[in-house]
Amino acid sequence: MGNRAKKKTKEAAGVDDFLPLEGNNVNQVQSVPIKKQAQEKDPIFSAKKKPTVLYIGHIPHGFFEDQMRGFFSQFGAIKRLRISRNRKTGKSKHYGFIEFESPAVAEIVADCMHNYLLFEHILKVQLVPPEKIHPQLWNGSNRKFKPLKWQRIQMKHHNRERTAKEQDHLMKAILKKDAKRRKKIEAAGIEYDYPDITDGLPPVPKKIKFSDDQE
């Protein structure tokens, strides 16, 4: 054999004897894409990748969690449902999310309900890809909202006992408004005089300082 033939046989043997750095065989490394292709062909594996979450925008007032669940459950089983609400007032922000158990049902709802007229509002329904779903999206889902009694809360806040500093600040604000009101009456050329607000108030207690001899 010549020198060229010997070099070719050595190169061929080197390829067969070559091992990757991780210690796996070449055949095992090449078989990984084949497994991925088999998983993608699997209907169960492909169904997990399909979106099942819907974004619903322009939700009309009065169409809350119970109404949405009753309306959209006619398409299929609902796994989770959430309407975005204001943290302070609890009022609806007019958009929410629904997760169906079947991705096929989610696609049907997105096709049928997008630009659907509901109570003079055109719904906006879109599929949300799984990679774009926030991990805290379903916090507070499937909970019944209890409206807060804001009138009672404001009544307690208004009738609370105020400190002397708060009363002084409140009185200054009232006198400032009264002075502006008097100026507007005079500027309009109206001769009208009404009693001062401070006439009916009790006098402010004076601070008494004691000398060292009196102590």
Automatic annotation (TrEMBL):
What GO molecular function annotation could you give as one example from this UniProt entry?
RNA binding
**Domain named RRM: which ranges?**
52-130
Main localisation, per the record?
nucleus
> A Pfam family name for this chain?
RRM_1
Kindly state which keywords UniProt assigns to this record, in alphabetical order: Nucleus, RNA-binding
CDD domains per UniProt: RRM_NIFK_like
Q: Which GO terms describe its cellular component?
A: nucleolus
Q: Where in the cell is it found?
A: Nucleus, Nucleolus
InterPro entries the UniProt entry points to = Nucleotide-bd_a/b_plait_sf, RBD_domain_sf, RRM_dom
Q: Tell me which SUPFAM superfamilies the record gives.
A: RNA-binding domain, RBD
PANTHER family named among the record's database cross-references? MKI67 FHA DOMAIN-INTERACTING NUCLEOLAR PHOSPHOPROTEIN
Name assigned to this protein: RRM domain-containing protein
